[in-house]
Amino acid sequence: MNFSELFKLSGLLGRFSPDGRCLASCVQYRLVVRDVSTLQILQLYTCLDQIQYIEWSSDSLFILCAMYKRGIVQVWSLEQPDWHCKIDEGSAGLVASCWSPDGRHILNTTEFHLRITVWSLCTKSVSYIKYPKACQQGIAFTKDGRYMAVAERRDCKDFISIFVCSDWQLLRHFDADTQDLFGIEWAPNGCVLAVWDTCLEYKILLYSLDGRLLSTYRAYEWSLGIKSIAWSPSSQFLAIGSYDEKVRILNHVTWKKITEFEHPATIANTKTIVYKEVEKSPSVETERLSFPPTRALASSLFSTQSKYDISQVPVSLQYIKPVADRANPKMGIGMLAFSPDNCFLATKNDNIPNAVWIWDVQKLKLFVVLEQLCAIQSFQWDPRQPRLAVCTGNSKVYLWSPAGCVSVQVPMEGDFQIVSLSWHSSGDSMALLSKDNFCVCYLEREEV
Question: Is 186 left (phi over 0), alpha (psi -120 to 50) or beta?
Fold first, then answer.
């Protein structure tokens, strides 16, 4: 495994291009585009203000930079560096911006969610979608890029509109049977739209492309409900994480629950492998010690190495009781992700912040638990194979695959606390992001 040097970064804005050739990163108001293989700077763009969001177009030819404070979006072209586009929403303000799947339209959501403005880069024409809902996930595109669903709120009721992305014509408009819709997400095959309600009410609705209600699922009432959802890549399963520390799996034939995964503080099943991260002090040969020590030696002396031990079950995990009188309590299933081959599901229960749970989807059983020394910040599956990368806010990256588990210290001087990571589409490198810096980690072909 090899690591690049550290590069400056702000706002955790580091993104690989969809074609895998470039890596874009932001430093305050500058956008830097690098070649992925050499990390040489290809283009340097200067924006009008500090960049708060970036997104590549689907064909990797354009980059959108949003400056929400100023209500401005700037678009840059990789092929023609002199060409640029500025979209100013003026007094309407700006709270969100994204590309359409064709990479030639930009959708801007104005302040107070008064409307979504669809700007065309080709014809400079503008379309408006009124009454978008102010919620966590109010716009969803099908994977093939043909349809867009938008959550709307009017007359104190929730609605869903489905648009054809090629000409922005309204295909279907129907009311959603929710109290206060929280999010929408298409199945990867684009046939079913999942719509879920506010966390105050456990309710998930499944609609077909033509607006028919296929099914409604409610696990319980009178308690905090859904916290996270994830579709399996095959669209066969819908995993629903909730505040009661359970994941429920619905099947795509009857939309009934086929199983539920509990996340108890004690793991007793002998068939579950528990990898526990333990610190190991670095060994240094006394002959190599010089005074004063070299910087590289000093940093390796003071950075604690770690390794994984296999724990004997039963194992008690560190459990945190949430504070009852605060909003958004740290409890329940906050993170869910299926592996790209559909074989595994990784979850995190916020009551047990230091553990990642990996479930065998074929056997519908708990397979592995990773117990870390620090709280899990982020995890992401390798897009090409069942391999999970985890970071916990320190200078290490952790990799799990069915073959085993490894902890890798990033060899950097100073404090490099990894809080987010992002795989390259090839699966042979990833960007490791901290608050102020990022580096690229390259995996050897044998490791891949």
Answer: beta
Count of beta carbons in the 10 Å neighbourhood of residue 104? 17
For the segment 169-225, what is each residue's pLDDT rounded down to a tens digit?
999 999 999 999 999 999 999 999 999 999 999 999 999 999 999 999 999 999 999
Question: What is the C-alpha separation between 405 and 402, in angstroms, rounded?
Answer: 8
Give backbone dihedrals phi and psi of 192, rounded to 5 degrees, phi first.
-130, 135
Omega prior to 383 cis, within 30 of 0? no
| CA–CA dist 74, 62 (Å, integer) | 10
Q: Are 96 and 106 in contact (CB under 8 A)?
A: no
Please list the residues that pair with 414 across neighbouring strands. none
Dihedral sign (CA 437, 45, 422, 10): positive
Spatial CA neighbour of 168 closest among 137, 130, 127: 127
pLDDT in tens, 35-52: 999 999 999 999 999 999
List, in sequence order, the alpha helices (H) in 281-365: 295-302
Tell me the C-alpha distance between 303 and 427, whole Å: 28
How far is residue 108's CA from residue 262's CA, in Å, rounded to a whole number? 40
Residues pairing with 345 in the sheet: 338, 359
| C-alpha 346, offset from chain centre | 13
CA-CA distance, 218 to 239, in Å (whole number)? 13
125 is written with which tokens?
A: 């024409």
Q: Which residues share a beta bridge with 240?
A: 229, 248
**H-run or E-run covering 430:** strand 429-433
Per-residue DSSP letter, 204: E
Residue 231: CB atoms within 10 Å? 21
Compute the distance between CA of residue 446 and CA of residue 247 in angstroms, rounded to an integer: 35
> In 3-state terms, what secondary structure has residue 300?
helix
Question: 392: closest CA among 297, 314, 296, 306?
Answer: 306
